[in-house]
Amino acid sequence: ALLTGANRAATVTAITDVDVFTIGKSGFQHVIASNPAIAVDISTILAERREALSQAEEDITARFDREPTR
To answer: What is the pTM assigned to this prediction?
Structure first.
């Protein structure tokens, strides 16, 4: 959401007590500008997730392509 401007699309439930911090877009941009390594880490994670999603899509498509039609 911070990268795209879209609404947050996930819900998180903690199983223990936690401290929660929120950060707005301008704060996030400041953190990234001050710590470029964080941007590299985020990019790496996003690339890994995109690859995993792509693989999952290929797997499910192949599964349905193999099933006989009824």
So the answer is: 0.64
